[in-house]
Design goal:
By secondary structure, this protein is of the alpha+beta class. The chain contains 6 helices and 17 strands. About 25% of the residues lie in helices and about 25% in strands.
């Protein structure tokens, strides 16, 4: 499974960003990629830094956006994982990953299930939690377990995708460090943005997903944005997306890792490796499914 993760910055407009992304997909395909993965909300700025109703307009072109990416997938004969803003009905919006097969057909969709609400990441204002469940998507290159960003912190999501036969776990992502406003003192922002705290955040983000690879015996592929995007409201200084897209193999072994610059991260995945690893580490065999009923409770103490 020849795979390419396209790590890029927002280029100031949808038109310019889509044009650049399309060029990079062509470049990835020319390099032999069968599977191309784009970052979260790759057509636009990360608009969830503030709560403004004008950004709902980004979802108005969902159907035409799907048609456009369908053509791109078909033209370059790649399986393409996109991340789009879906208007399902007035007042009902989703953060939706749409997967196109190499003939341009829609292989499947995944609507982001876990929705964060933190300073600079006000996604609950925009997105309704997904209702399609954790269902892998069958494509010509294999069965893909597609999740989105905040989902990456939840082992339950990774496990269910694996139990349903996902051969890889894929996370389009938009995560970075908050930039403190330059015109005033912001104690919380300054506290969370020391060198030490930034390193803790980055290492936690990598570690939890590496753990999903090990616990489930599947590769994990994560692609993140790069670049500084200003907060449109001016309340924060913006988000500096840290990039660091990566691929871990089914034993948690690092297969590829990017820095903070724009890049196409390429990796060849051995589809036979999962089975071989699970013969040695049969974690699925030893699960005590008779003893996990507490997981269906919000919390297990009074």
């Amino acid at each position: 499974m020849k795979t390419a993760l396209i790590q890029q910055r927002y280029r100031g407009s949808k038109e310019a960003t889509v044009a650049h992304t399309t060029e990079k997909i062509a470049e990835a395909a020319e390099g032999g990629a069968d599977l191309v993965i784009l970052q979260e909300l790759h057509q636009s700025e990360y608009f969830c830094q503030c709560e403004e109703t004008r950004f709902f307009d980004h979802a108005a072109d969902f159907e035409s956006d799907m048609e456009g990416w369908s053509r791109v997938a078909a033209e370059h004969r790649v399986v393409l994982v996109t991340s789009l803003f879906e208007e399902r009905a007035p007042g009902l919006y989703h953060n939706t990953a749409v997967v196109f097969d190499s003939d341009g057909s829609v292989a499947g969709k995944y609507r982001k299930m876990h929705i964060p609400d933190d300073p600079g990441f006000y996604e609950k204002f925009y997105f309704t939690p997904g209702d399609l469940g954790f269902e892998p998507i069958d494509t010509s290159v294999g069965r893909l377990g597609v999740l989105v960003c905040w989902d990456q912190w939840y082992p339950e999501a990774a496990r269910i995708m694996t139990l349903k036969g996902a051969e890889v776990l894929i996370y389009p992502t938009a995560i970075g460090w908050l930039e403190c406003p330059t015109d005033r003192h912001d104690e919380l922002c300054e506290k969370e943005n020391t060198v030490e705290e930034r390193q803790k955040m980055l290492e936690a983000w990598i570690a939890v997903q590496r753990g999903h690879a090990v616990a489930n015996g599947v590769p994990v592929l994560t692609v993140n944005r790069v670049g500084l995007e200003k907060d449109p409201s001016g309340q924060l200084g913006g988000i500096r997306f840290w990039g660091r897209s990566f691929v871990f193999g089914p034993q948690g072994e690092p297969l590829a890792m990017a820095g903070e610059e724009e890049t196409i991260l390429r990796v060849d995945l051995d589809r036979k490796a999962n089975a071989e690893v699970r013969k040695i580490w049969p974690f699925l065999r030893d699960r005590r499914i008779d003893a996990y009923e507490e997981l269906l409770r919000r919390y297990c103490l009074p």
